[in-house]
Amino acid sequence: MKKGLTLMELLVVIIIIGAIALITLPIINGVIRNSRQNLFEFQVNEIEKAAQDWMYKNIDCLPPLDAQKCNTSAVVNFNNNNTTIRLLTLKESGLVEIDIRDPRNDCPFNEIQTTITITVENNSYTYKANPVIEEC
Fold first, then answer.
1. Once rounded to an integer, what is the mean pLDDT over residues 24-35?
2. Domain assignment of residue 56, yes or no
3. Cα 26 from chain centroid?
4. Strand partners, 65
């Protein structure tokens, strides 16, 4: 009776495992890449929801903005149809995490350059985050 594997049988097993790895690794990498992109989009949506919560608490800052009642230091830009706030404003209000990172490259969002624009059109408000990712 023979015990163990011959060198030829061992090489065949290694070749089969290598072939399986060649087939599955690109698929797994694609799934990971798509998951990271989906998480990034989820984070942007959460920032937009946090901006909506912030605006509920700061109703005077909704477009058209009442400059006398709104704390304009929290607002980057405003006109009759738009109000723009920074991610930093949402962080200081406790509405978003302290450190939001881009899951695609693990770099942080720039809290000063990342802005959220609130637009009013036909009595309907839209929230659009403009993420800026820092170099890392």
1. 94
2. yes
3. 24
4. none
